[in-house]
Structure formats: C-alpha cells, structure tokens
Write a structure and sequence with these properties.
Elements: E1 14-16, E2 24-26, H1 38-54, H2 65-84, H3 89-115, H4 121-144
Antiparallel strand pairs: 1-2
Helix pairs in contact: 1-2, 1-4, 2-3, 3-4
Length: 146
C-alpha cells in the first residue's frame, strides 16, 4: 500500500442496459469498451456514409452543409468515446445526451439535402431509419447510466 493512502471500499452496484448493446456497469468496475457497443459501431459507419455522400454535393456547400453534416455525423461516435473516458457515469450520460442531440441535427440535415435534391429519396429513406435507431439506442444507453 502507498504511504498516506488508505484503502477505499468500493460499493458494487450493478445495472444492465436493456438495449442490444447489453452494457453491464458496476461502480468501481470498468464497463465494456465503447468501441464494442452496437450504437458506437452503427454511428461510426453512418459517419463514414455521410462523408461519402457529401463528396457529391455542390462546391458552394463546402463550408455550409457539407461541413455541418460531417461535424454532426462524427459528433455522435466522438461524444460516445469522450464520455466513456470520463470518470463518472453521470459525465458519460451527459455526453450520450450530446450524441443524441447530434442525431436530431443530422436527421433534419438529411431532410434538407433530400429536398434540395442533393440526395435521392431512396438514400434519405435508407439513412433516416438508421439515425432513428441510433437515437433509440442512445436513449436506452442514457437510461442505463442513471
């Protein structure tokens, strides 16, 4: 034992996420790596997809919608990663909430670019339900961190 440091007893409280990621969290025990969560994997693949589709947008959108959509898309997995590396589940939950906000932002941006004819209705119909799924998964993850 390090001199001047007393032993601290850690109370173990277990709760399990009800979403497909099945995260099991205990105070004082590390949880599943964020990279292994289904919500992280899906949001990461969607961020890559957004980067690909924005390559076809007009040049005048370079500093507008392209930049905004990309930032919103990578904000979801980025905030999950940052939150998971915080010291408490309360802080982690806050970052999950920020990720959820970014899904709302990207859902509107998808509607806008569909209406501007930058993407097809089919592409919109493919991406929107996936972002809605991410949003649901984030809600369940946040509840598991309460």
């Amino acid at each position: 034992m390090v001199q001047g440091v007393s032993r601290v007893r850690v109370r173990k409280i277990k709760f399990t996420c009800t979403c497909p990621c099945r995260v099991s969290v205990r105070k004082g025990v590390n949880m599943k790596k964020v990279e292994e969560l289904d919500v992280f994997k899906l949001s990461h693949s969607l961020a890559i997809e957004v980067f690909e589709i924005t390559k076809t947008f007009p040049d005048e959108e370079r500093f507008g919608l392209i930049s905004q959509m990309r930032r919103a898309a990578y904000s979801v997995p980025m905030n999950l990663m940052e939150g998971a590396h915080r010291l408490s589940s309360k802080e982690y939950r806050q970052f999950v909430g920020i990720s959820k906000g970014s899904t709302g932002e990207i859902k509107y941006q998808l509607l806008l670019v569909k209406d501007l004819k930058y993407i097809s209705g089919d592409k919109y119909s493919e991406l929107l339900p996936q972002y809605e799924r991410v949003s649901q998964m984030l809600t369940k993850l946040a509840k598991s961190l309460e």
